[in-house]
Amino acid sequence: MKIKISIFLAAAVFLSSCEIPGAVLSTPILPKAAAAAGIPSGCISPEPVQGDIDRALGFTDDIFSGSDWVRSYTVESSRVFVTFAADPLSALAFVEALIFPCGYAAADLDAFFNAENWQVIFENYESYEAASECKSGESLRLYQFDAVDEGYEYKINYWALSDTDTRVMGLMTVFLAESKSLMDEYSSVLFPELASCK
């Protein structure tokens, strides 16, 4: 009944190798230094800075800090990726601090959070299905999925929060379908304004 962490790590590796259209977490680079580094004018470096790491690590406050949860993180170009695994709960949570170096608009997020990327994330599942998608204002999106792996049914929530002009925070939670009430509790604490699309 353990969630296959390797599925999500493989997806994270794939997504980290993809170009993020117009996204980055770091401090602006002076025009001369940016040109020397091959960064378009008006853009920033895609490399995360300490503030990005701190933001990703602290994004969920202490919600996943109990003894059931184990945290790890990686820092890559254009993102900081934090994983929380709770084997006793058969649950996972992922935080992504995504850097859009040249900024982003709603259309860029639509292009990034699309069917093709979801297919990559869920490629190792037996099946998955988009259940719903909704927004709270212009800055918070929620994508909900049902998935099956090794005969077990899972409920998955992925929130995308427009955090700054060049940064988007993503948070994905994965729980067994039979633990939906526990997932709903976490969702209500994490994003009370958009705990569910239903």
Quick recap of the structure?
This protein has 6 helices and 7 strands.
Write the layout of secondary structure elements.
Blueprint lengths: L4 H13 L13 H6 L13 H9 L11 E7 L2 E8 L4 E9 L6 H7 L2 H7 L5 E10 L3 E10 L2 E13 L2 E10 L3 H11 L8
Antiparallel strand pairs: 1-2, 2-3, 3-7, 4-5, 5-6, 6-7
Would you mind describing this structure in some detail?
By secondary structure, this protein is α+β, with helices and mostly antiparallel strands. Helix content is 27%, strand content 34%. It is built from 6 helices and 7 strands; from the N terminus they run αααβββααββββα. The protein has helices at residues 5-17, 31-36, 50-58, 106-112, 115-121, 180-190; strands at 70-76, 79-86, 91-99, 127-136, 140-149, 152-164, 167-176. A 7-stranded antiparallel beta sheet has the order 1-2-3-7-6-5-4, with helices on both faces. A hairpin with a 2-residue loop joins strand 1 and strand 2.
Q: Summarize the amount of helix as a percent range.
A: 25-40%
Largest sheet: 7 strands, antiparallel
What is the rounded Rg? 17 Å
User: What are the secondary-structure elements, in order, as H or E?
Assistant: HHHEEEHHEEEEH
Spatial order of the strands forming the largest sheet: 1-2-3-7-6-5-4
- Per DSSP, what share of the residues sits in E-state strands of 2 or more residues? 25-35%
How far the N terminus sits from the C terminus, by CA atoms, comes to: 27 Å
Q: On the 0-100 scale, what is the average pLDDT? A: 83
Number of strands: 7
Morphology: globular
Query: Number of helical segments?
Result: 6
Point out poorly predicted stretches. Answer: 1-36
Broad structural category: alpha+beta
